[in-house]
Amino acid sequence: MRLGQVIEIVGGRALNEFNHARQVEFGFETALLSDVLAHAKPHTTLIITEITNPQVVRTAEMVDAAGVLFVKNKMPSHDAVRLSNETGIPLIVTRLGMFEACGKLYAAGVQPARRVE
């Protein structure tokens, strides 16, 4: 699926300029960025979070994430948006909560980036 489709599915909006055709295959919901570093799949993982500081953008950059989706209308800090513009990390925000956003994306075909055994 493309980032543009993610925006449609979650009723979101882009917070910066990016290629809406970038592919998303996996979703990674998290409150712990260390989990993302340990388990994210490069290039096609969308980080879904409430974390709004610049560290989420740095983490996305380190794992070459497809982008970051902020839930509950949580707006990233000014520094995080500035950093995303510098690094090219797409930022999206939705009013949906974590549970509903993940459910809609999963129903649309986005797969979990990690599976707990």
Side by side, the strands of the main sheet go 1-5-4-3-2-6
Unreliably modeled segments? none
DSSP, total strands:
6
| CATH homology-level superfamily | HprK N-terminal domain-like
Structural class: alpha/beta
Radius of gyration: 12 Å
Helix coverage percent: 25-40%
Say what the CATH topology is.
Answer: Udp-n-acetylmuramoylalanyl-d-glutamate--2,6- Diaminopimelate Ligase, Chain: A, domain 1
Query: What number is the mean pLDDT?
Result: 94
What report would you give on this structure?
- The protein is of the alpha/beta class and 117 residues long.
- It has one domain: Udp-n-acetylmuramoylalanyl-d-glutamate--2,6- Diaminopimelate Ligase, Chain: A, domain 1 (3-Layer(aba) Sandwich), CATH 3.40.1390.20.
- It is 38% helix and 18% strand.
- Strands 1-5-4-3-2-6 form a six-stranded mixed sheet, sandwiched between helices.
- Helix 2 packs parallel to helix 3 and helix 3 runs parallel beside helix 4.
- The longest helix has 10 residues.
- The chain is globular and about 35 Å long.
- The model has no long low-confidence stretch (mean pLDDT 94).
